[in-house]
Amino acid sequence: MLSGTVLAHQVFTGVSRGHLASLVEELAGPWQAVVEGRRHEARGGARKREAGAGVRHRLVFVDRLVATLIHLRHDLPHAALGLLFGVNRSTITRAIGEIRGLLAERGCAVPGRPGLRLRTLADVFAYAQAEGVELRLDATEVQVRRPPAGRGGRRAFVSGKKKQNTMKATVVADHQGRTLWTDALRPGRMHDATAARNEGISTCFQHFRDVEVLLDDGYLGLRRDHPGQAVTPPRKGNKISPPEVLEARLRARHRHSSKRIAVEHALADHKRWTHRRENLPSTYRAIAGLVSDRNTTG
To answer: Which helix (H) or strand (E) holds 34?
Structure first.
């Protein structure tokens, strides 16, 4: 069993001590509310003893948060974390399940707005229109374990591009690569544009007419439906085009790529953390929120 100070180091958790302290302050109340709600349901009514009476938690809230961050960062097995914290594996499993859900629901931080967090795609579009921010959107695939044989929808995870079992995350970032939003994740077989449409991006384009989103060639359908708002790279010139036309289009595509690369950097930050298929949606959103905190605070 290691010292709590050692385990809370940034090398293990991936966040600074100041960031960890702010997470403790933010999540302690909601976590306690969840615990009391579960106890109320188990009792079937109000508590009969004073608050604080009864069996104590073997793993206090701060340790639960630290254990969850270590698991998200390094994918350390629950049994190994139990050994480090001096508790049973089942205690770690319950703790990670509780804290991961709280982290996933936090949303993403906004640069220069300490009290504001973006939780939906509509929130991002409203923020972008109010602040004049040009958005970058892209999707990435994360390899996951193959679902058990015989389970319905098993083929939906097989990516035609990766030739692996994956889940697809759609991410929105600003011009500096700061994460503003990520979706609930979709099976890897789904097309990038379809995943964005399922999150309501067409409705957001209709309601926020001044917002522009830079996209790659996988979103040509969105450019067709929302010209001037969904911006994809210029098409490549064909073989019979004059050399000056080919050169002009190549330069235009390069300028577009240089602007859109910011979202690729955001995706790279997310992938420095690790994932499992069963919990990937909440895990990915939890990681996206943590990464956005770090990028906002510098």
So the answer is: helix 17-43
> Cα dihedral sign for 230, 205, 116, 69?
negative
CA 168 – CA 48 distance, rounded (Å):
47
Model pTM greater than 0.70?
Answer: yes
Q: How many CA atoms lie within 13 A of 20 on its CB side?
A: 23
60: helix, strand or coil: coil
**Per-residue pLDDT tens digits for 170-204:** 999 999 999 999 988 899 999 999 999 999 999 99
- Give the list of residues 6+ apart from residue 231 with CB closer than 8 angstroms, or none: 212, 213, 214, 215, 223, 256
Residue 88 has pLDDT above 60, yes or no: yes
Please name which of 65, 76, 104, 87 lies closest in space to residue 287, comparing C-alpha atoms.
104
Give CA angle at 96 (171, 84), nearest 5°: 125
As a whole-number percent, the residues of the chain with pLDDT over 90 amount to 58
The 8-class DSSP code of residue 158 comes to B
